[in-house]
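Quick one before lunch.
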Amino acid sequence: MKIILLGPPGAGKGTQAKRLAQELSFPHISTGDILRQNVSSGTDLSKEAKNYMDQGALVPDELVTQMVARRLNEPDIRRGFILDGYPRNLSQAESLDRILKNKNTGIDLVVYLDTSESVIIQRLSGRLVCKSCGVNFHIKNMPPKVDMVCDNCGGRLYQRTDDKEETIKTRLEVYKKEVSGLIKYYEVKGKLERLNADEEADIVLNKIIHLATEKAAK
Ligand code: AP5
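Model of the BIS(adenosine)-5'-pentaphosphate complex:
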């Protein structure tokens, strides 16, 4: 099963993709995570990407698509995968279709995590991320058992640099500009399913699993 999680910043794409990856034993491919790993290792790619990310703007399509194409060449994606943060616009969606078509496959399910703006702001302003394993926590919604320490691996938690108020605003604007085209694209193909992602994380996860199971049975 090849799944895309679509939704605004803070919708819970990363949170749900990580849980879903465990439940379904598929790799989780997050362009945001791959870009942040490049930034922390100081690779050539990161020098170009960092400025865009710090401003909340999209990293150029070509760069991100090359990164995704490389990842989709790895053998672990054959059974399925969960894409989080890609595609972000029509051009990326078309590139993704081309990449998958060359592998005689395609996307099975696109889940749109519909989230209200007040929830987005509350979630992003309290988000904590593990430096070692990337698992997400939240100061109020999902606090770690020990202050600033990851329950999963014991790593240090940190606040993302793009979770500042000004940058969140820009990320939301960028998202709003691109999302309707993307939604239409997958609606026309009959792949899009909408979920209310304001609900508790466990409820949202169960609904996504239900959608994936239904799709697999068709
Ligand atoms: P990326 O990392 O993809 O950021 P994003 O899309 O803005 O999404 P977020 O990671 O902020 O939110 P999320 O939906 O994953 O929410 P999360 O699960 O963390 O991209 C970052 C940057 O990289 C971009 O701005 C861009 O510059 C660049 N980039 C990435 N992909 C690109 C692409 N394809 N093209 C070009 N540039 C690209 O949850 C948020 C918080 O809420 C957490 O604290 C979590 O614990 C909590 N939470 C989650 N769900 C729930 C729930 N149901 N109830 C209560 N709390 C919840």
